[in-house]
Design a protein that fits this description.
Serine Threonine Protein Phosphatase 5, Tetratricopeptide repeat; 13 helices; single chain; 0% strand
Length: 236
């Protein structure tokens, strides 16, 4: 199906836009601390509970990486900012060897790993890291809605490219829970439903994007038209 090939091409274009938008720290997640020039002591930038007891446990603190992971992730951030992916991958590997990581450490490492993998063309690795990050409870609490949406959209793209259509559909459900789904992503989800042989849903999603384009005086997506045509044929 040409739509599947186009899905991959669209995915690469979307991923290119993804890696060039926003700061590396924003893409990596909400727990990236200040750069190394921060004048505060390490125990103030890391997780305070790791260096001293919580003096007021009733006061909830935002999650922070442990000091050693924080240092490694700063190095990942610096290397990624320079597009030095060899160093970024090495520092990620180093971060993964640090013993006794907290759940938040693991979440930030997985988020950064997805970013680095996508930038280095390791799409299977990127998808695997996205899945881990999205499954973490910190995904909903440590990232903004915009960050969550961006992550889920790229996870949909990578899942479709890997023919993991059920995974793409699951990511789409999470995305819809955050807010309205744009037409480009709706087409990606229509492709996922088509690949999953849910032709009625695939046709419905694709048709809605066609109707919206016509209403706006724009040309409908060729992929959407093809999905509607082939879904209709399979529904007969």
């Amino acid at each position: 199906m040409r739509a599947k090939r186009n899905a991959i091409l669209f995915g690469l274009a979307a991923l290119s836009a993804f890696v060039s938008s926003g700061s590396t720290a924003q893409v990596m997640g909400g727990g990236m601390l200040q750069p190394p020039t921060d004048p505060r002591r390490l125990t103030e930038t890391g997780d305070p509970s790791l260096s001293r007891g919580d003096q007021n446990p009733s006061q909830k603190q935002p999650p922070r990486m442990s000091p050693r992971v924080n240092d490694a992730m700063k190095a990942v951030l610096a290397a990624a900012g320079q597009r030095d992916w060899t160093t970024a991958k090495a520092k990620l590997a180093e971060a993964r060897t640090i013993p006794n990581p907290s759940a938040f450490d693991t979440f930030e490492i997985d988020t950064a790993a997805a970013f680095v993998a996508v930038n280095t063309g390791d799409f299977p690795g990127g998808l695997a890291s996205y899945k881990k990050a999205i499954a973490s409870p910190f995904f909903a609490t440590a990232q903004t809605s915009a960050q969550q949406s961006l992550t889920l959209k790229n996870a949909i793209i990578l899942a479709n490219a890997a023919s993991d259509f059920s995974g793409a559909i699951a990511f789409g459900a999470k995305l819809a829970a955050i807010g309205p789904v744009d037409d480009a992503t709706s087409i990606m989800l229509a492709m996922a439903y088509f690949g999953n042989r849910d032709y009625a849903t695939a046709k419905s999603l694709a048709q809605k994007t066609i109707d919206a384009a016509i209403a706006a005086g724009a040309k409908p997506s060729a992929d959407a038209i093809e999905i509607v045509t082939k879904s209709s044929a399979n529904l007969r």
